[in-house]
Design goal:
The protein is an alpha+beta fold. The chain has two domains: about 1-295 and about 335-465, Up-down Bundle (Outer membrane efflux proteins (OEP)), CATH 1.20.1600.10; about 295-335, no CATH class. It has eleven helices and 14 strands. The protein has helices spanning about 1-15, 25-35, 35-55, 105-170, 180-215, 215-220, 240-250, 255-275, 335-340, 360-425, 435-465, and strands spanning about 20, 60-70, 75, 85, 90-100, 225, 280-290, 295, 300-305, 305-310, 315-320, 325, 330-335, 345-355. The strands form six sheets. A four-stranded antiparallel beta sheet has the order 2-5-7-14, covered by helices on one side. Strands 1-6 form a two-stranded parallel sheet. The longest helix has about 70 residues, at about 105-170. It is elongated and about 180 Å long.
Amino acid sequence: MKRCFLVFLVVLGSHFSHAQWTLQQCVGTAIERNIGLKRNSLGLEQTKLNQEQALGSFLPNLNGQVSHGYNWGQRIDPFTNQFATQRIQSNSLGLSTSVTLFSGLQNVNQYKKAEVDTRSQLLTFDYQRNQLALQVSVAYLNVLLTKELQASSELTLNRTKQQVKRITDLVNAGSAAEGSLRDIEAQLFSDEANYISAGNNVQSAILDIAQLMQLTEQEQSDFSIQADPSAFNFAQEIPNLTACVQNALTTFPQIKSAELSLASSNLNLNIARGGMSPRLSMSYSYGSGYSGASKVLTGSPDSLSYPIGQVFGSGQYVFSFPQPVYTTSDYATKPFSNQLHDNVNKSLFFSLTIPLFNGFSNDVNIKRAELTRADKELSVQQTKVQLEQEVRKAYLDVTRAKANYQATQKAVEASHLAFDWNELRFNQGVIGMSEYLDARNRLQQAESNFVRSKYDWIFKRKIIDFYMGVPLMSQP
């Protein structure tokens, strides 16, 4: 145990020689930079826009209309109601609005559905963020594991170097056979290879977490993680299984998201049923226009009398009263502003549409919505069953990991005592090289198993904490 504690201190000393990253910082950086989460946040914004659009369905629309044109040939001018044959310029301006007064509560249900979909998307985002945090935690602990294994291999290498030096001195003094030196040198080369391999494993583990965090090349070169020995509470009791399952089923985002998807499908069914309801709408328009054919009198006409008969007997002509005679010069186009004022027209309409037959589209929409709702009900059940199975498996894993940790802890203590005894006997010449190396290799294997079981216990304990609602971003 003293040796293991020394290994752990070596790991911690190497951590604090560079810029230190805590687990919180690693998870926060990964969440901030992850491209998949950024894309999901865009999807969340889309659902918010859908909600805003659904809210707008309660409001009346408003549209403006302006036109300017020319007409040739005979036509009835819409503003003078007279035939016009010359080229006529015309303009029209108007505003129109309409609003749905009742549509089977479809707009109400569409807004509720958009609101539910937004909440569901937000929970999906939380779930994906939790999954990323879990991946970073695994990678973080793997860096600690590989670093501790590297430190252990370095101590083993140094111990072998000391033995090489001791046996070399004995061979030179004639107190040991040269074969023993060759055996320990062969072991030294093997230990050097193991140390190099352990260093490669550390670099690979660092690369894995750096890729999850989207670190730059410069950030990777300065990357080092921080570990706090007091954070490892190996005596911590495992929570009750029932409490773990209950907490996960009531608080986890995937459960809430599945339930909201079911609520959304119920609202979608109500929307489909609303298609069978009559639709009442109202529209209003206000407009005016201008026509070049609209004229007003501006001049003074001449007065002319026309013979309308003769007096019988005298033959004297009888003339009509003087009649005004107009020419084109007596008229001018009516001013634009006057026409806009005089040509104002307004309309107000109420429209009731009753769906009688639409090619089975409404019936099919209702049946499709019912099938979707049934699928979502099964999805909720499946999600709950799957999550409960995951919690139960994690609970079984953590109990096994704890038992394995305790067993390897005893094994490494026994192996260390055995090695110390065999090393003493080897130094005294009581046992040979093969027995010494066999004891040393058993110790090395026991230490390696202990380190792996320790981090396996830490990680699986964190999984249980996660199911109990403890954030993964806390230190292990």
